[in-house]
């Protein structure tokens, strides 16, 4: 059956309220009222943090990639050669900042006391060491294992980078709006047809779509002149059995939770890649169709309706690229969205606020360590994390995801402003509360007013 990735599309375009009719639901009048109110809420909330910069460019300028975690299991001391491989997975820029959205956590199984990593090692069903397990940032629930195998220099390099990812990164940095990856199913006729449809539609859209006009107040979100922006698409084919692309194939197949199911896994898949290596969602089989390709392209080249990364669809890929060295934004990202302090944060002194957000590095507290990993991923230019003592906890996020909205706001703010966040955010929080109170009153009046016959 055609695959249109409905869940992702509804999340991307806010269409849930438009598809909520049918069955034994409310009357058509009540349904229209509900739809109108829902749209009003969506529009009101999004306008407060909207931006006229196209999604693809705002993401390239401001959205730091979420971090994957590579667990390296060993016993005793690492050899000099093994330590060199560990170091190679944590490349640093000229000023010592991490360049890759990958956390490396080295686990000595001979004295590991953490139940989560102990179970992870036991699940390997092997005594061969050292061994590596790579897990994705949590998006649709707990982190998923995208790769596991011997810890070698070759495998480490394959996790870090690949020819396709290098090509995608180069195209995005050079100004292409979106680079599409077609993950082949292995049936030449089916793959050729899907690629032909994709290329044909991208060529048409490249000539027909128009970029939004950049408003003057949003010019600070661009590091280039608005006139330099362009709509440009390209597509790359990747074979599922390409040994150099094993990690990329596994990452792409986990962009959505059901892509590994039998009915989908044997079909070609198309992924629009934008920003700093973020896959929007998958178009599968007959879902690689003109209307679906156009939907994704319109969204990515249209105005950014929500500048907060965590509230947008997509999953980041591991990219070994110095994004901040290539793209330097002129203003800090999400500067107008300080961390949400909550009512308990109001009235705290700056020092107290700093104390509330401080994180210990004790290896006995995996949840706290993961929170630190998420915070550090946002505070470095590309989402890398410097600590190696990171332990995965099932259901706990290491990324700037929906489960940690406050963390995602904090990650976007300059480090020097962190202490002042509660007082700085108070006015905006009150504004949002008042806005939704007004909306609540309107909704209540529509539903509970006396009805005349």
How would you describe this protein?
By secondary structure, this protein is an alpha+beta fold. The protein has four domains: 6-50 and 430-448; 51-63 and 163-326, no CATH class; 68-159, Glutaredoxin, CATH 3.40.30; 343-428, no CATH class. 39% of the residues lie in helices and 12% in strands. The protein has 16 helices and twelve strands. The strands form three sheets. Strands 6, 7, 8, 9, 10 and 12 form a six-stranded mixed sheet that branches. Strands 3-2-4-5 form a four-stranded mixed sheet, with helices on both faces. Strands 1-11 form a two-stranded antiparallel sheet. Helix 2 (28-47) runs antiparallel to helix 16, helix 8 packs across helix 11 (290-301) and helix 14 runs parallel beside helix 15. The N and C termini lie far apart (47 Å).
Structural class: alpha+beta
Q: Looking at the structure, what is the overall shape?
A: globular
Helix run count: 16
- Helicity range: 25-40%
What distance lies between the first and last C-alpha atoms, to the nearest angstrom?
A: 47 Å
Extract low-pLDDT stretches.
1-48, 330-430
Proportion of residues in extended strands? 5-15%
User: For the report, how would you describe the main beta sheet?
Assistant: 6 strands, mixed
Number of strands: 12
Elements, N to C (H/E)? HHEHEHEHEEHHEHEHHEEEHEEHHHHH
The structural domain count equals 4
Rounded mean pLDDT score:
73
Rg (CA only): 23 Å
**Oligomeric state of the chains present here:** single chain
Which features would summarize this protein structure in a list?
453 residues, alpha+beta, Glutaredoxin, 12 strands, disordered N terminus
């Amino acid at each position: 059956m055609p695959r249109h990735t409905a869940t992702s599309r509804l999340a991307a375009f806010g269409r849930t309220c438009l598809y909520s009719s049918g069955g034994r639901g409310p009357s058509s009048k009540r349904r229209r009222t509900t739809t109108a109110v829902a749209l009003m809420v969506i529009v009101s909330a999004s306008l407060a943090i909207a931006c006229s910069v196209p999604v693809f460019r705002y993401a390239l300028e401001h959205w730091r990639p979420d971090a994957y975690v590579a667990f390296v299991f060993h016993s005793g001391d690492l050899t000099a050669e093994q330590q060199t491989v560990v170091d190679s997975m944590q490349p640093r820029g000229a000023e010592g900042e991490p360049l890759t959205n990958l956390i490396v956590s080295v686990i000595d199984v001979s004295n590991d006391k953490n139940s989560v990593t102990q179970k992870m090692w036991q699940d390997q069903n092997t005594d061969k060491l050292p061994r590596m397990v790579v897990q994705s940032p949590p998006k649709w629930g707990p982190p998923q294992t995208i790769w596991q195998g011997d810890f070698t220099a070759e495998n480490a390099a394959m996790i870090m980078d690949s020819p396709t990812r290098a090509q995608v990164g180069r195209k995005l940095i050079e100004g292409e709006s979106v680079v599409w990856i077609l993950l082949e199913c292995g049936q030449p006729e089916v793959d050729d047809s899907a690629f032909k449809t994709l290329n044909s539609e991208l060529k048409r859209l490249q000539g027909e779509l128009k970029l939004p006009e950049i408003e003057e107040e949003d010019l600070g979100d661009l590091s280039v002149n608005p006139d330099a922006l362009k709509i440009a698409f390209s597509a790359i084919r990747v074979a599922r059995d390409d040994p150099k692309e094993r990690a990329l194939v596994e990452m792409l197949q986990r962009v959505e939770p059901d892509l590994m199911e039998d009915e989908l896994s044997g079909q070609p898949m198309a992924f629009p890649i934008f920003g700093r290596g973020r896959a929007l969602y998958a178009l599968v089989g007959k879902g690689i169709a003109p209307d679906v390709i156009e939907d994704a392209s319109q969204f990515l080249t249209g105005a950014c309706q929500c500048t907060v990364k965590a509230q947008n669809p997509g999953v980041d890929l591991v990219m070994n690229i110095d994004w901040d060295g290539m793209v330097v934004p002129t203003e800090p990202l999400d500067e107008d969205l300080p961390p949400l302090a909550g009512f308990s944060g109001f009235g705290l002194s700056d020092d107290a606020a700093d104390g509330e957000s401080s994180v210990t590095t004790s290896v006995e507290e995996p949840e706290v360590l993961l929170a630190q990993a998420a915070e550090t991923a946002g505070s470095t230019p590309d989402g890398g994390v410097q600590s190696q003592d990171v332990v995965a906890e099932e259901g706990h996020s290491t990324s700037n995801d929906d489960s940690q909205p406050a963390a995602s706001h904090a990650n976007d703010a300059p480090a020097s402003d962190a202490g002042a966040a509660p007082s700085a955010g108070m006015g905006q929080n009150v504004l949002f509360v008042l806005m939704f109170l007004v909306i609540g009153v309107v909704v209540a009046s529509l539903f509970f007013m006396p009805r005349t016959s």
